Task: structure prediction
Amino acid sequence: MRLAVIGSGPGGYVAALKAAQMGAQVTVIEDSEVGGTCLNWGCIPTKTLIASTELLSRVRDLDKFGIDLSGSVLPNMAKIIERKNRVVDIQVKGIRALFKSWGIALKEGRASLSSPREVEVQLKSGGTETIQTDSVILATGSRPAIIPTCRFDGKNIISSNEAINLTEIPRSLVIVGAGVIGCEFACIFRELGTEVTMVEMADRAVSTEDHEVSELLEHEFKKKKIRLLTGAGVDRVEVMDDGVHTFLSDGKEFVAEKVLVSVGRAFNSEGIGLESAGVKKGSRGEITVNTKMETSVPGIYAIGDVTGGMLLAHVASSQGLVAVQNIMGAGEVMDYSVVPSAIFTSPEIASVGLRERQAEEKGLKIKTGHFQFRGLGKAHVMGEITGFIKIIAEEATDRVLGGHIVGPHASDLIHEIVVAMKNGLAVRDIAGAIHAHPTLSEGIREAAEDLHGQAIHTLRK
Ligand SMILES: Cc1cc2nc3c(=O)[nH]c(=O)nc-3n(C[C@H](O)[C@H](O)[C@H](O)COP(=O)(O)OP(=O)(O)OC[C@H]3O[C@@H](n4cnc5c(N)ncnc54)[C@H](O)[C@@H]3O)c2cc1C
Result:
């Protein structure tokens, strides 16, 4: 089996490795950097910056931990970016080494389909090469979406691609969009000392999360002095002598050194020969696929952001594994019922399954269990007591339907609920398992016990 994979983000590179491990002859074509958005401009760079700002915040709190520090603690942005580049570089080299060890051919250049079984590559080194193949996986990903009212200039009006490389801390920043990416950058820059204003069209920050999660995050933003305007539309953004002016539809105006626009992603489905091969797209420009990750053309598969579903690295990778299983004849389908997501704000957020309001809209009879981190010894030990754990279950069966965590290590803790949901477990199964002490995981058990009115470390209601 010959397989051509276009794009080497977490969708493409994972698919390529799995296919090679299953015996396929694999060629990966990458136009930019190996590792795609995730490694070079997304997950890894932002989380590396967050590691620096979290440390900064901890060091500022040293006094609370009984440690005296003489002298000042200041972020050195050039060094922070240097570290970020080193972390990215290690990951990129790691993928290149994996490709080599599994005999995967990497072609650096821009690929497009010239027919369902032929991929043409404009090589970076010059010239073109045509690759004959039996199957193709399109894993071309996405890029920052542009809105006509806020056009990027790469310097003053920027996207996340530039925000991860700012070697000077902006004095002030307007962030258009209080979704996942916007909120993560708000926390990064606020910790660095930037005056941050966020403008969001929806009625709350991270509006796809459970409403209680948004409420807590907004409360924390207030404490950090991050100004958040919700239900607010941007009329236009203009660069003037005194800074960048953001004009809102209601007449308000803000001036800042820079404006970061994070209003979603556009799909990389143009210029890749979809028309020549007859591959169908949806109304938003996404490549249409079924649950086997098959496009409208037999033998051509699409995975990851370009398919327009959940724009998450782990979803792209899982789709890649499913596509490869189908290419190799195993007949597998994607199951989106249990997909965790994490937001690396301060405090961290993680969720899986149904939000409370979604459950209500579906007319489901549910029960919820809550536990505040402040009720845990470990949270006090760590000095991180803000946040809660919430578990949602079906009333009749006690089956876990969702979990929402805001607080320390939320992105790690969520997986206990993920495994419970994936295996159809009931809340009593979580409550019945002994959890080690003192750990943050005890909070999951307490939330599970609370759902049955039996939490130990909760005041009588
Ligand atoms: C700032 C930011 C933070 C994020 N944080 C997280 C996070 O914490 N957790 C998480 O799960 N997700 C996160 N994401 C989302 C995550 O990065 C994406 O969901 C993921 O990268 C999608 O993977 P992909 O393989 O579909 O595409 P991509 O990673 O976008 O990779 C596609 C690759 O295809 C290449 N390509 C495109 N067209 C061609 C062509 N014609 N020829 C050759 N190559 C081509 C591109 O150069 C690119 O390298 C974040 C995104 C951003 C922007």
Observations:
- Residues 6-12, 29-32, 36-38, 41-43, 46, 110-111, 139-142, 160, 181, 268, 272, 304-306, 311-314, 316 surround flavin-adenine dinucleotide (CB under 6 Å).
- The CA atoms of residues 240 and 459 lie 56 Å apart.
- The longest strand covers residues 105-115.
- The mean pLDDT is 97.
